[in-house]
TrEMBL record:
Broad EC category: lyase
SUPFAM superfamilies linked to this entry: PCD-like
Reactions mediated catalytically: (4aS,6R)-4a-hydroxy-L-erythro-5,6,7,8-tetrahydrobiopterin = (6R)-L-erythro-6,7-dihydrobiopterin + H2O
Organism: Inhella inkyongensis
InterPro entries according to UniProt: PCD_sf, Pterin_deHydtase
Top-level division of the source organism's lineage: Bacteria
Family: Belongs to the pterin-4-alpha-carbinolamine dehydratase family.
Protein name: Putative pterin-4-alpha-carbinolamine dehydratase
EC assignment: 4.2.1.96
Length: 108
């Protein structure tokens, strides 16, 4: 599967431990934490944080898969999990994490 061109799928099941172990190394800067995939991105100023947040929002809208975002002056934390998979990690989360890393605004 090409994570960079993949589309999220409705009803994606939760990944098991083997699935997480397979995909997580392909997501630089991301960790399995708090039941989801989480990454922190650092920036020089709040304007860059907001540009990144808006880029993530555009991606989330296009994929119809929405993360939890926490923003501060110079940092954004992104966390993906799949509600329909019991709040666990699915391939939709892996796809979106990979695509967030490619955003021009991203600096994991």
């Amino acid at each position: 599967m090409n994570l960079l061109t993949a589309q999220c799928q409705a009803g994606a099941p939760a990944l098991d431990d083997a699935g997480l172990a397979l995909w997580l190394p392909q997501l630089p800067g991301w960790e399995h934490a708090d039941g989801g995939l989480r990454a922190r991105f650092e920036f020089d100023n709040f304007y860059q944080v907001m540009a990144f947040a808006n880029a993530v929002a555009d991606l989330a809208h296009a994929q119809d898969h929405h993360p939890d975002l926490a923003l501060s002056y110079s940092m954004a934390t992104v966390r993906f999990s799949t509600h329909s998979a019991g709040g666990k990690v699915s391939m939709n989360d892996v796809v979106c994490a990979a695509q967030v890393n490619l955003l021009p605004e991203a600096r994991p």
